[in-house]
Write a structure and sequence with these properties.
This is Urease-associated protein. About 25% of the residues are buried. A three-stranded antiparallel β-sheet has the order 2-1-3. The radius of gyration is 14 Å and the shape is elongated. The chain is α+β, with helices and mostly antiparallel strands and about 100 residues long. The protein has one domain. Helix content is about 15%, strand content about 10%.
């Protein structure tokens, strides 16, 4: 089950569970749309994978035991440790490689 991290790991922008501007990689690294389109250019700076829009977990439990009421979003913020220069260098190295070939 997705953790639904509450913030962008790059700029620390708030990304609530219902945000349509949250993007994740296969390891659930989480970034905002501005960073995705800007410095990250669609590349996860941690694993090199692509970033896809994070699904929104329904608030209401349409089925018993499901929804945010039963499986809340994380409150633990994660902030990346890479500098802007480290991110840019890494992204520039692999951004030309199609995501399915990285």
């Amino acid at each position: 089950m997705l953790i639904l991290k509450p913030n962008c790991e790059c700029c620390n922008a708030s990304l609530p569970a219902n945000s349509s501007k949250a993007y994740i990689c296969t390891y659930e690294c989480t970034f905002c749309e501005d960073c995705l389109k800007g410095i990250l250019q669609g590349v996860c700076p941690n694993c090199g994978g692509d970033l896809q829009q994070r699904p929104i977990r329904p608030v209401k439990a349409y089925r018993p035991g499901l929804g945010l009421r039963h499986h809340s979003a994380s409150k633990k913020k994660v902030v990346g440790q890479l500098s802007e220069q480290e991110i840019t260098t890494f992204v520039d190295t692999i951004k030309h490689i199609p995501a399915h070939q990285r």
